[in-house]
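> @MW can you paste both from yesterday?
MW: sure, first one:
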Amino acid sequence: MSQDATNFIVGLVFIIVVILVIVLLVRRSNKKKRGQVWQGTVTDKKATSSTDEDGEVTNFYHLTVAIDGAEKPKKLSVDEATFKALAVGDRIEKKLGDLQPSKV
């Protein structure tokens, strides 16, 4: 086997390992998030955007929620639909198995 073929195989294995690590971290994060259960009140909403060097705009939607029984408010990143459906003062809950909170 030539040196070029060996380098290609080593590079390919490295890329596969990196991809697998990323996939495992995302799955672990989603599993942890799906396992949470809480209720609270939306205390703040904030939409921000970022423009990259190509001029493409990415929007981010954040909620601050006063969780029942917790001292510190929880800051969440949510999708656009959830952000638009909620207003400050709304009661929301995060159910077991869901990724996004919903209005009570």
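MW: second:
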Amino acid sequence: MITKEQVWKGLRLELSYEELGKIDQCGNYERDDYYDFDLLMSTLYKMLNREIDFKHFLSWCILIANCFSYIKFSNSKLNHLYCDIGWFFDGISFMDEYNKLRLLESIAMLKHYDYLVNKAKKKTKKPFTTNGVERILCFDHANWNYDSSVYKVIIKDYNTQEWEIRYFDDYNFEYDENINYSFVDDTEFANIFSEFYNEKTKWKEIHNMNF
């Protein structure tokens, strides 16, 4: 079994690439609350700024994917979220090379995961907005021509009660680090969309909103 002290050393990048690789291969970790948003975010930024070795970063992502299976709480929603975050970092570990777009997307996604964690802990009930505007993304399809992802998007302005739906292709898009983005599945996206057509709604559909 890998002790929690060793896991934390790996998470803090205090282990060499070789040492990290050894504990990555272990299938048994001591249980602990390994979720530390600031630590995860700071390491993503270190990779974004090329301050750490790329292979070391990928090994770090694998450690997260592994050890997050050993976070257990009585709150089933939190358990599900930590499992999702582990799979999220597992996906990042398959990057072939440094990719600024994908790292910025990962930073945006991790911010949304942290919002969901805080919501599950009942620390917030507010929507995930920036200056009163919520940007809700749902993956629609891959554009193989550009090796990019196409999203359907709802922009929801709580200040004016206006909304818009559109599609965007991320091949020429760079996530703004100062803006919050929500990432949802098809079912949640459809539910949000249907709310605008409630007979009591005051929401107005417009066009050309700022994304």
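> thanks! The longest helix spans residues 100-120.
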